[in-house]
Amino acid sequence: MASNQHSQKKILHNFLSVGFIQAAGMALPLITIPHLIQVLGADGFGIISFALAYTTLFVVLTDYGYNFIGTRKIALLKGDSSAINKVFSTMLTAQVWLTLAGFLIFGISLLIIPDFNKDYPVFLATFGIVIGSTLLPTWFFQGMEKFTVLHWITFVSRAIYTVLIFALVQNENDVLWVPVLNSATTIAAGFFGLLLLLFKFKLRFSFAPFTEVRYSLKEGFNLFISAISTTSIQQLPIIILGFFTSSAIVGYYAFTDKILLVFRLTTQLLSTVIFPKAVLVSQQSYQKIKSFLQNIEKWSAIPLLLASFFLFFLPEMLAYLAPSYTSDIVRLFLKVMAILPPVYMLKLTSEQMLIAFNLTALYRKIMLSSLAFSAVLILVLTWQWGYSGAAAAVVLTEIFIFCTMRWNWSVAKQTSISGG
């Protein structure tokens, strides 16, 4: 009991110690959104959001599920510097090759897809975030539980980005500055984080042999498919709205999604903090990790329900505080999607159970089926009811993912019993 209380206190301490930094970092992009909408218009903001949604898929390609696989390995290898160094070199080598392959695919898509080609400078400038993501191996910081360092790096880069946005983006002709600044600050953060690993943590990078890279890619394949499915589900509304509606509607959805991102990133932060512990607890028994994850749900229940009430009534607050940003479209998006914060948390704890027991193949199947479900649902509902149908599809997809993952906890239980 004492050990369990100690671990809960450690998780709470880690969460709170980076919570302020993360909250400040999340607030900074929100500060820039009203300025960007006012200066660039909903159309300009929609073009930027469309390019970012597509490029985010390539960020996931280069991450390749290593945020789970790498975190899990580093968490279990603490104290073995030689093994940690090998993991670091192998995974970073794989990410470099994935970045090069991703850029080739990205470039070809800009040439052959008209909706991308017409705004190719914005798309091309946005690709820099993929390079920055590769340079900053977040999985190492997470596995070593150096959360504060990681989030300070992210916060500083976002702060610089925010200042530069207000200084340089002054009219609708400055639209290209937004992806350029986003990419430049992300790459700078990546370089700094990588240098920190090389000098402070005494890591040594060398290009890994192809056989080791191939094994690493094979090992991470299930989680990569799961991650690309998850990100595709998140970006599908923007991409489909971008193809079938106007840039203005894309801009309004992106504005709403940035508000929801605060709650989504909060659960992701909690995921970052608890995952190393969840891996270790899963080594004991199914009942131990079940109790551990359900306690997380209990802690977060009241704050997340309050968050849902806040989102539901936010349009009324915005009507008084910022009437120029309160369109009927934004109002509908917020009302329909207000239920999502508690669903995000339930989905988080459900996926942690599966990944902690290394049920990556099952996790992949769930996310692939969820992606298919989401794609069909968004296409049908958007075709029938426009942007309101897209909002309903987002909510139904998140609930579907949570229910499917929770239903499969029985597989994790059986894996624990069999010692698999």
Helix/strand structural class: mainly alpha
Count of extended strands: 0
The major sheet is characterized as:
none
Mean pLDDT: 84
Q: SSE order in H/E notation?
A: HHHHHHHHHHHHHHHHH
How many DSSP H or I helices?
Answer: 17
Helix amount, in percent?
over 70%
Shape: globular
Beta percentage is: under 5%
Instruction: Report how far apart the termini are.
Output: 26 Å
Radius of gyration (CA) equals 21 Å
Low-pLDDT segments = none
Topology:
Elements: H1 2-63, H2 66-76, H3 81-112, H4 114-117, H5 120-126, H6 128-135, H7 138-143, H8 147-168, H9 177-199, H10 210-244, H11 247-282, H12 286-321, H13 328-337, H14 340-356, H15 360-385, H16 387-407, H17 409-418
Helix pairs in contact: 1-3, 1-6, 1-8, 1-10, 1-11, 2-3, 2-11, 3-6, 3-10, 5-9, 6-9, 8-9, 10-11, 10-15, 10-16, 11-12, 11-13, 11-14, 12-13, 12-14, 13-16, 14-16, 15-16
